[in-house]
C-alpha cells in the first residue's frame, strides 16, 4: 500500500528543502555556501539534482544581483511563464518591475517584418529601458544571442540569468554569455526552462525579503 505523508501546507516547502539537503549530503555534494539557496530552490522546482553540478555562477554575481535589485533594477523575461512565476511583491518593494515584451503587438509585427524571433526583438526593447536591467531567460536561445550582439555594440545589462532549455543553439547561446564576461548565472548544457529562471529570480528576491528571511538555505 502506498504511504501518503500528512504534511500541513505551511510545512510542505520546509520539508521539501530538508529532503533536498539530506539527499545532497547522501550524494556527497557540497554546495558553495554563497549559492546554496539558489541551487536548492532550482532543485526544489525541478526535482533534478543535476543542477547542483551544472549551474555556473560568475565571480561575485550574487552580490552584483543583490545590489542591482536593491537599486530598483527591472527584470526582463523571455516568456510570460517566467513573468508570472516571479514574486513581484518584493521586486516592486525594491523599486523594480518585471517585464515580458513577447506578446506585445508591435514586437510581434516587427519580428514578422524582419523575419526574426520575437525574443530577439524583445531584447532590443528591453535595452531601451532607462534603468538597470536583469535578464531572466528560460526559453529562447535567440534572446541570449541577440543580447550578446547588443553587448558587442556597447549595451551593458546589470546581469543575465541564462537558462534556456532545448536542442537548437541552446548550448552555444549559453557559452556566448559566458564568453561575454557579463555577471551571470548560467546552466550549462541543454537543461533549463522558464521554471528554472523564475526559481533563480525568486531565490534572490526571497533573500532580500526581510519579512520572509532566508529560511531554506
Describe this structure in words.
With 217 residues, the chain is of the alpha/beta class. The chain is built from 11 helices and 6 strands. The chain has helices at residues 9-27, 36-46, 51-54, 61-70, 80-85, 88-93, 105-114, 118-126, 141-152, 170-180, 194-208, and strands at residues 55-57, 74-77, 98-99, 133-137, 159-162, 184-187. The longest helix is centred in the first third of the chain and has 19 residues, at 9-27. The chain is globular and about 60 Å long.
Q: Features of this protein?
A:
single chain, 217 residues, alpha/beta, Rossmann fold, six-stranded mixed β-sheet, 52% helix, disordered C terminus
Low-confidence regions = 213-217
Report the average pLDDT across residues: 93
Strand order of the largest sheet: 1-6-5-4-2-3
Task: List the domain count as a whole number.
Answer: 1
* CA radius of gyration: 18 Å
The H/E string reads: HHHEHEHHEHHEHEHEH
User: How many beta-strand runs?
Assistant: 6
CATH class: Alpha Beta
* Euclidean distance between termini CA atoms: 34 Å
Secondary structural class: alpha/beta
As a percent range, the share of helical residues equals: 40-55%
Instruction: Tell me, briefly, the overall form.
Output: globular
Q: How large is the count of helical segments?
A: 11
Amino acid at each position: 500500500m502506498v504511504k501518503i505523508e500528512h504534511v500541513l501546507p505551511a510545512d510542505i516547502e520546509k520539508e521539501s528543502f530538508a529532503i533536498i539537503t539530506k539527499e545532497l549530503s547522501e550524494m556527497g555534494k557540497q554546495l558553495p555556501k554563497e549559492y546554496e539557496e539558489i541551487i536548492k530552490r532550482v532543485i526544489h522546482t525541478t526535482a533534478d539534482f543535476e543542477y547542483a553540478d551544472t549551474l555556473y555562477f560568475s565571480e561575485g554575481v550574487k552580490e552584483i544581483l543583490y545590489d542591482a535589485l536593491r537599486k530598483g533594477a527591472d527584470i526582463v523575461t523571455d516568456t510570460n511563464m517566467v513573468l508570472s512565476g516571479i514574486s513581484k511583491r518584493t521586486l516592486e518593494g525594491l523599486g523594480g518591475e518585471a517585464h515580458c515584451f513577447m506578446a506585445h503587438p508591435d514586437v510581434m509585427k516587427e519580428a514578422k517584418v524582419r523575419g526574426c524571433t520575437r525574443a530577439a526583438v524583445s531584447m532590443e526593447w528591453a535595452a531601451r529601458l532607462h534603468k538597470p536591467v536583469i535578464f531572466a531567460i528560460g526559453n529562447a536561445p535567440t534572446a541570449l544571442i541577440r543580447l550578446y550582439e547588443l553587448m558587442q555594440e556597447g549595451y551593458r545589462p546589470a546581469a543575465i540569468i541564462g537558462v534556456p532549455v532545448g536542442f537548437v543553439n541552446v548550448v552555444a547561446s549559453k557559452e556566448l554569455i559566458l564568453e561575454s564576461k557579463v555577471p551571470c548565472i548560467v546552466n550549462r548544457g541543454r537543461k533549463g526552462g522558464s521554471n528554472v529562471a523564475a526559481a533563480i529570480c525568486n531565490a534572490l528576491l526571497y533573500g532580500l525579503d526581510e519579512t520572509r528571511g532566508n529560511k531554506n538555505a
